[in-house]
UniProtKB/TrEMBL annotation:
Domain Sulfatase-modifying factor enzyme-like: 99-344
Highest taxon of source: Bacteria
Xref: Gene3D superfamilies: paralog of FGE (formylglycine-generating enzyme) (3.90.1580.10)
Protein's gene: egtB
UniProt source species: Pseudomonas fluorescens
Protein's name according to its UniProt entry: Hercynine oxygenase
Keyword set, alphabetical order: Oxidoreductase
The keyword Oxidoreductase is annotated on this UniProt entry: yes
Amino acid sequence: MKNLLHRFIATQSGALQHLWRGSLSERRTVPLGREAAPALRLKNRVGCAAQRDGAAFRQAPSPQGFVYAVLALLALLPVVAQASTAPLPGKVFKDCRHCPEMVVLPAGTFTMGTPEGEVGREPDEGPLHEVTFAKPFAMSRYQITAGEWDQYLKETGITIPDGDTRPGRECINSKPRYPQGPRQPAVCMNFAEVSAYVAWLSLKTGQHYHIVSEAQREYAARAGSAGPFPFPFDEGTDYSIATHANTYGPTDGYSYTSPVGSFPPNAFGMYDMHGNVYEWIADCEHSDYVGAPTDGSAWVEANCEALQIRGNDWGEAPVFSRSGNRNNIYPHTRGDWIGFRVVRELPSKG
């Protein structure tokens, strides 16, 4: 069982790998924060996987117990996964009615980072280096929507603490102050709360989901391209991308977030990769790519004080939307400008 647990941990969000490995080796509580405690209320509400072993949840006395229960259940999943054949790149699927819509991305190698001289380039975007994905993987083609997030909160009974105290920008019960429909991106959750959603989704579906790594996110955004964007700047402008993404100003048709999929997809079938809301990433903050993994995995270590984020949001300039642009925030941050996607592991070809 111990080997199976470590196999599962290796598939999960990078920033939690260190925490969970420490929990297993030292028998200590995983420091997910007070806001992770309501996850204990999942119990038998997380679908068939939890029903098979509801006792694990009933006996869980702490967030540590919840994490052990998640690991124990998910450790069984690789056996199930091998029974199916990996879908072909470009295939779109959902694992359940309220699950995110996933698209299969191909295996391949790409150059991560940006060249010197690219408009808006920052020092943390280099050096250029090749990253290889040995097999296909699936990513949510849209940012997780408010409707999908609300369903998660409904099924689990979890409540999200308020966040951000700026007038007009407050997050109240995981909702922004601006109008938000079910097809707009979910916002106002911190990293621990995203991690809890991913654990719930994995249990609900019997599949291995995790938070997107920085390499996976850039690979998906580039979709085979090598420049700042996989599309040209708007005709007759210097740097506008209003016909391709929701960024600063109403020129793109939106003053706040837009419904996901409002702009054209890229060559991989991914939407909103260059705007709408920033996205949580599994990697710790790093000042450059020296020593970065080359296999597409998340780059993490102990004492990770800040995490990378990717994308750009509705209130920032297009220069921050570049495929290779990097940003970072503290894990406890909640805001009306930050959301997330998920990745799902795929079985090997059968």
